Amino acid sequence: MATSQSTGNDTPRPAKDPSRPLYIELREREIRLLYLAPGSPEDPLRGHLDVVALAYPDNSWCPARLASGAEYVALSYTWGDQSDPATIKLNGNMTLIGRNLASALKNVRLKERWCTLWADALCIDQQDDVEKSRQVQSMPTIYEAAKLVIVWLGDGFEGAEEAFAWLRGLWHIQEEVTLSLDRINALLSPLIAEALTRLLHLPWWRRVWVIQELTVCQEAIVMCGSSTVPFGCFITLANIMNTFIFTGRINQPDCSYSALMPAGQDLLTLAEIRCAWKRCDGSINLMELEALIRRTYLRTCATDARDHFYALLSIALTENWLELKPDYTITRDVLYLKATLHLIHRKSSLDILQLAENLHRSVDDPSWMPGWDKGSFSLAPREFIKGNASAGLELSLSPSEDLRVLTLLGLVIGELHFVSPFENEDNQFQPPRCIMGWLDELEDRVPTNPYSAACGLLEAFIRSLVAGHKSFVDEQDTHGEAPLRHIFLTWTKMTSPDSPMPPTWRALQESTQWLEKDLYRTPPANLRRHVLQSLNRRSFVITDKGHVGVTPNEAQEGDLAVLLGGCSTPVCLRHENGHYRWIGAMYVHGVMAGEIVENLSSADRSALTEFDIH
Questions:
Q1: CB-neighbour burial class of residue 483 (10 A; exposed 0-12, middle 13-18, buried 19+)
Q2: Residues 414-423: tens digit of each pLDDT
Q3: Cα–Cα distance, 551 to 534 (Å, whole number)
Q4: How far is the C-alpha of 567 from the C-alpha of 585, rounded, in Å?
């Protein structure tokens, strides 16, 4: 499983700390390797650490290697619970290690020969923050230079070997995947699907470091207990799942692979990033840090909160390293503040802050700062609202000395006078009663219509229900005059013929001006699906100036709808204790395409308001 390796000690150097004799000072381009003694799974662990030098390639086509030309295997595993440690005898000293790492070492060691391994918990001095910072910068090279990466999922369980055997069989017929989806679908039995789901639920898949480790490595195998399979088998499974997703079959009742979701989403993300890492010519394709975060921020976990950034930096564009480098001497709070401001400045945009709405909020964090370690949200994430509301109004940002308060320029769209949270109902056909109640409120709450006509207010209301969902709305707009309005009115007429509705809209509802093909093209069920997605954990709002829209359901009456420079959507802010609190992104109909900014005079621009957001 691991390569045989004889040891060759360098000229002896003293330990950094006599009380910890395992760790000597590492020079530039040096790493430690674990030389693990042979033994059976039940034998005690023993071995020794030695220092070796890395050789870096001259170009991105060649992988890194050890300067000596020797080979080693790198482990990818989860630390797990450290409260009940196991032991390993290293360089004559008993050393505590986590039980999951101990189990991995017992399963990968050879019976009759020494093997050479790299495992971060032992090969990096975890008590030296300076060394840890330097070694983390070298980890992409460490995993790239390894002959093999072993993914340790954990101890085996009933059904794991059968699932691995099925994956190996799937790998052998991968050329037929796109030719016979029915055959591939029939291959997955309920028992194998259950075992695969259990495998995909194991903690390793959510460990943030695995993204880097499995992206840069040359070759990898997966172990669960004594069972092994090439990691390429899981890539094949991901390709099949993507095929079923893209063809829409994943949602069909007879699709065997639907049982693997949502557990399989972590595999799909990892496979996507790994496949995008190298171009066809073999050169490296570094990625935008923001794009990596958007793909991973909800589902990854780390023992150290700082690793949510440090684990992604090595596969991000070099420009991201200019301000952000692994540094374990700074706190989680300082890193998150610096990293979030870095992401804002990189794009001159505040849009990255919208991700915070799908993360748990910490009372100690600034309201605008995403809690990057607060992912794995148990609720369905909110869809991102898209727009171009601040077009022409550039970002103007001044952070406080401690970085916790942002001073931003913007203008007030209006004060929220009506806020009503969306409440879904099980009825698959009838519009939720809260929507019909909002219709009733419009007539009383909008004395001055800011839109072109009565029909304009109805159009604003309907488009707010889907938060301006661009692809869906644009599709309807290509089919003539107001088909989205027709679909909505037909939906309410079919399901709520006695619903409250202003007389002008009632006349529209009862007219027959639209064609039946509108209903065939976009049935009410399609509209309902987009409404439910867009209103998830959001509230419908009406401002004091008559604008309608949606906002995070944490909003309250009296909050402000504000347009900030560098933010593509309006933002809900709450004034409290001399500062403003960031509530979240909004959809406000009539301002999403930059209409307000376009009508600003030069005098108006000079009178923009400063908002101190804590």
A1: buried
A2: 999 999 999 8
A3: 10
A4: 9
